[in-house]
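Quick question about two entries, pasted in order.
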Amino acid sequence: MSAPPDLVAFHLGIVVRDLDATIDRYRRMFGLDRWHVREGVDANRAYGGRDGTGLAFELMQPNAGAPGQLNEFLSQHGEGVQHVGFWTPDLLGALQAAVAEGATILSGGFEQRGSIVVQLDLPADAHAFRRAIAFVDPGVATVRFELIGQAAEGDLRRWLGDDFDALIASPPW
């Protein structure tokens, strides 16, 4: 199977211990002055960067004791780049291509069975974002890929508002 077309990298996901301190440092060091902060169950997140770069930063500070891949990453590797976020117009195709080449699906509305990818039936009230995003471990280094389909664009646009077009590389659809 060949790689799916039109993958567009648009953000780096970085696990940090102190969200506010990291934002402050990035502002001072690199002029990254647009940030949107949101508290979550598993982690507090900040999404931001600087106008026109086309590359955003998703800073993630795991909440102490919260289960999941962010606390796992922090305890195993310390602070650092945990994933690269890619837009993909064909989320299922991208997952199938990755699994065919030996990647492992870590989370999302999909599951891996042998060398195939199965789309799971999520509860009817499952958030649309969960249906349009998956994490893949390619089995190389520590960096994972976050594959984001078209259905998730609206949620990210709502969160970032007018900053979306200034910070984010355009999706390939």
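Here is the second entry:
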Amino acid sequence: MFTPSQGATPRREFLQTAGRLTAASALAGVVVPHVHAAEDNTIRVALIGCGGRGTGAAANALSTTSGPIKLVAMADVVDARLKTSHAALAKRFAERMDVPEDRRFIGFDGYRKAMDCLRKGDVAMFTTPPAFRWVHFGYAIEKGLNVFMEKPVTVDGPTTRKMMKLGD
């Protein structure tokens, strides 16, 4: 039979200490904040409505010199308009665009997909017909996005009331 020499740690005490150390090291990963080398302050923009005015509004946004900005998603119900807009913007602002094919959305649900590409606090640009604005605006509020809307924002009483309620 083995008898521990004087000063040796009994097995039970060793296991208890090892368990405490393991638990402490596991919790340290939760408590210690993650450190990042650099912060990304780029404003990400989604263009919803890629007609002539939408392309112009996106060009205005991408022309800013007050901070980093990047167009990351585009949506329209007409494929040709989106393609024409993308080509025109890429010609002038290629370095400020990151809109691959999988972030170019066609169809009536494209606005959702484009806004889903953004982070909270980014910008959704609505240059669509006013009849759709309240739907788009409601989804942007849900997502915590900032919004740029072309005028007129609404053109009738019921839609105006919906927009006012959303604004509250």
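Reply: The domain at 43-167 is CATH 3.40.50.720 (Rossmann fold). The mean pLDDT is 86. Hope that helps.
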